[in-house]
């Protein structure tokens, strides 16, 4: 009977962890894997209890297994996951301790005596665990679904220290209680105060993450503005060059007309041949029927050519591409800027191959020669220092691609960096 | 008649992809006669230096290029802007594509303009006339590489005989019990023929994965050249065939497909 109750309490704890973690973290495994790991986390400690393992070892084993379940099933940095492994333990312990003490006070007996009253004790502990589930469920439903972490490592490390210390204090209190055989009001108050402080820490983390997220959005907006300003300046330069070319063309036509009118045909022919030899690169080299994409590509094509980078572009009719202009400008500008930057650092042949093809989806591919890059989880670690402030271009690319529900891949081999993405287009 | 149960040596024989380049047939069309001769001479020099046989024909007007010649030419070098305003290089390319879809088209021009029209005729490269000295050789070598890829074949033993098929004609290979079933659609034809042979899909995957084939599901190995749409629920080929996909491997395989597409 005791084993059944213990197994039931384990199940309630796992439900509590499930709601708490899902309120703050993003699941990364399949549903099947998730259920299997939780089943394992429930089953293994139950076996330990059945085989009569020392309760302390059993408890440690339980902590380790629960920690592994969180690490395996949820996304995020290890520090962040560690934080959200320790916090539920603290909250769970405090709530149960407070309930135990409150019940013992109501009944006018000591906590130690309450534990001996098996039915009452079972009832109190079960209610305690149900309360923790209710609280976790409430937090799960109240919190927004955004679980992407924006907090820098150093801040996470600092905020983690308080829950860790709290956890150690609570464990110490627990062992004190075991040695003394009872729980004093003072210790219960300390537990409650620690819980409240940890709730404040969780709230602080949320505020800091929100602030970091706002800072990223602001940086993205600033970059969008910079790119649009630079695109407008490039368009203005192209317009001026076009006006100049038109003006020069009028002068050239006038010269040819004068020569022909005066009968000087051989000089007219020579002049025309001269002109053919000095024709410069056409200003507009890309014409995809999407004026914004053309503006960006033409600008970047010129920039690349000015830096002796061989550029090949493949486009089909992009007039039907309905993606938000800001997104497309920032995406293509960042992709091309990264490609140009990589080529400039490369000693060998500098080339950029770009394909932008629209059908039911928009396919974008950029391949460029490059020095070796480290790609982890489809992300390039920035080489610029300080790292926290750079890498925004790459982060913006990913932010936009994720926002557009794109599938994408980065790859590097044999001196060639490749990026390819497919973005669904709304019909 | 399906051949008897195979052993591993027969397996190696029964499905072997081969590559090779016969003599290259090149046609150049440009209304600038001096430039036409110049580029012919350069191409001949580059190919003979590399001991590659080639037959080169030159034309200064598009109308002189017969359909018979188009159907046997492997590589076209075309100017885009012609003095005769009735046509341009894109028009010539469209005519070429109506007759032959797999020939390689290189535009040689004074101004490069990347536009949908170039994509529609599957232009392989654009070369600037004023940079022809520095870019022609590399372009030719890439063209030869591409030709080799297009001419790759797969050899199988089916119905008691050994047959060879261009890889580009293979739509997909399906696994049925212990047999592999190859679905082939010849270029320019609508009908799809199937050929059964003994082979495991895994060994075919090892052999053909570097030649543009992708395992989208346990029973399907698809030629990415013919893959029009690849989603988590289904894959659609360019002839309308719909195939099931494996959800488990979809993410990884989709990434391979995205990278492959960018390399074409």
Provide a descriptive summary of the structure in words.
The complex is a heterodimer of chains A (about 425) and B (about 260). Chain A is an alpha+beta fold. Chain A has helices at about 1-25, 30-50, 55-75, 80-105, 110-115, 120-140, 155-180, 185-260, 265-275, 290-305, 325-345, 390-405, and strands spanning about 310-315, 350-360, 360-370, 375, 380, 405-415, 415-425. Chain A has a 5-stranded mixed β-sheet, covered by helices on one side. In chain A, strands 4-5 form a two-stranded antiparallel ribbon. In chain A, β6 and β7 (about 415-425) form a beta hairpin. In chain A, α1 (about 1-25) runs antiparallel to α2 (about 30-50), α2 (about 30-50) runs antiparallel to α3 and α4 packs antiparallel against α8 (about 185-260). Chain B contains 8 helices and 16 strands. In chain B, α2 crosses α6. The longest helix of chain B has 19 residues, at about 130-150. Chain B is elongated, with a radius of gyration of 21 Å. Chain B starts with 7 loop residues before the first helix and ends with a helix. The model of chain B is unreliable at about 1-20 (pLDDT under 50).
Which outline of chain B best applies? elongated
Alpha plus pi helix count of chain A:
12
Largest sheet of chain B: 5 strands, parallel
Q: Note the run of SSEs of chain B as H and E.
A: HEEHEHEHEHEHEEEEEHEEEEEH
Number of continuous helical runs of chain B: 8
Summing up helix and strand content along with how strands pair, one would put the structural category of chain A as: alpha+beta
- Stretches with pLDDT under 50, minimum 5 residues of chain B: 1-20
Biggest chain pair interface:
A-B, 33 and 21 residues
Number of strands of chain B: 16
Neighbour order of strands in the largest sheet of chain A? 1-2-3-7-6
H-E string of chain A: HHHHHHHHHHEHEEEEHEE
């Amino acid at each position: 009977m005791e084993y059944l109750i213990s197994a039931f309490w384990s199940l309630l704890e796992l439900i509590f962890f499930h709601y708490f973690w899902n309120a703050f973290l993003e699941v990364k495994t399949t549903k099947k894997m998730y259920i299997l790991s939780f089943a394992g986390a429930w089953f293994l400690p139950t076996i330990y209890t059945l085989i009569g393992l020392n309760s302390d070892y059993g408890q440690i084993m339980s902590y380790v297994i629960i920690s592994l379940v969180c690490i395996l099933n949820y996304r995020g940095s290890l520090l962040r996951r560690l934080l959200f492994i320790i916090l539920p333990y603290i909250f769970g312990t405090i709530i149960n301790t407070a309930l135990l003490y409150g019940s013992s006070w109501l009944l006018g007996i000591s906590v130690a005596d309450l534990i001996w009253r098996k039915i009452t004790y079972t009832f109190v502990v079960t209610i305690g665990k149900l309360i923790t589930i209710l609280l976790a469920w409430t937090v799960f439903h109240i919190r927004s679904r955004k679980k992407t972490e924006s907090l820098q490592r150093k801040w996470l490390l600092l905020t983690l220290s308080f829950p860790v210390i709290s956890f150690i204090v609570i464990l110490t209190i627990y062992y004190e209680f075991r040695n003394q055989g009872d729980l004093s009001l003072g210790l219960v108050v300390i537990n409650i105060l620690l819980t409240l402080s940890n709730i404040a820490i969780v709230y602080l983390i949320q505020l800091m993450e929100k602030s970091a997220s706002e800072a990223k959005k602001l940086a993205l907006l600033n970059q969008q503005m910079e790119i649009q300003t630079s695109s407008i300046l490039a368009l203005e330069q192209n317009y001026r060059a076009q006006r100049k070319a038109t003006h020069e063309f009028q002068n050239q036509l006038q010269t040819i007309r004068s020569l022909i009118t005066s009968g000087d045909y051989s000089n007219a022919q020579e002049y025309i041949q001269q002109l053919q030899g000095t024709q410069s690169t056409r200003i507009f080299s890309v014409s995809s029927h999407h004026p914004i994409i053309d503006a960006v590509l033409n600008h970047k094509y010129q920039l690349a050519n000015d830096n002796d980078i061989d550029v090949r572009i493949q486009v089909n009719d992009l007039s039907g591409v309905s993606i938000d202009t800001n997104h497309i400008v920032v995406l293509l500008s960042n992709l091309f800027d990264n490609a140009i930057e990589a080529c400039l650092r490369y000693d060998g042949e500098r080339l950029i191959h770009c394909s932008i093809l629209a059908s039911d989806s928009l396919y974008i591919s950029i391949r460029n020669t490059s020095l070796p890059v480290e790609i982890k989880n489809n992300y390039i670690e920035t080489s610029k220092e300080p790292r926290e402030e750079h890498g925004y271009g790459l982060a913006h690319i990913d932010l936009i691609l994720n926002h557009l529900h794109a599938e994408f891949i980065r790859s590097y081999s044999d001196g060639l960096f490749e990026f390819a993405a497919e973005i669904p287009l709304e019909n | 008649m399906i051949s008897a149960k195979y052993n591993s040596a027969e397996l190696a024989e029964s499905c072997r992809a081969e590559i090779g380049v016969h003599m290259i047939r090149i046609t150049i069309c440009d209304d600038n006669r001096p430039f036409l001769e110049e580029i012919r001479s350069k191409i001949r020099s580059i190919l003979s230096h590399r001991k590659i046989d080639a037959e080169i024909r030159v034309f200064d007007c598009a109308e002189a290029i017969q359909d018979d010649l188009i159907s046997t030419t492997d590589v076209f070098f075309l100017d885009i802007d012609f003095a005769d305003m009735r046509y341009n290089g894109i028009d010539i390319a469209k005519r070429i594509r109506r007759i032959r879809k797999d020939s390689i088209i290189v535009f040689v021009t004074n101004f490069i303009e990347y536009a949908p029209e170039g994509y529609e005729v599957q232009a392989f490269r654009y070369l600037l006339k004023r940079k022809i000295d520095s870019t022609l050789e590399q372009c030719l070598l890439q063209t030869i590489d591409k030709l080799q890829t297009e001419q790759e074949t797969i050899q199988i033993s089916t119905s008691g005989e050994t047959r060879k098929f261009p890889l580009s004609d293979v739509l997909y290979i399906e696994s049925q019990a212990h047999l592999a079933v190859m679905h082939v659609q010849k270029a320019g034809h609508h009908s799809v023929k199937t050929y059964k042979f003994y082979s495991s899909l895994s060994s075919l995957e090892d052999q053909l994965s570097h030649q543009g084939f992708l395992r989208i599901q346990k029973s399907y190995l698809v030629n990415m050249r013919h893959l029009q749409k690849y989603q988590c629920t289904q894959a659609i080929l360019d002839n309308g065939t719909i195939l099931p996909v494996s959800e488990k491997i979809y993410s990884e395989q989709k990434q391979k497909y995205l990278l492959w597409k960018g390399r074409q």
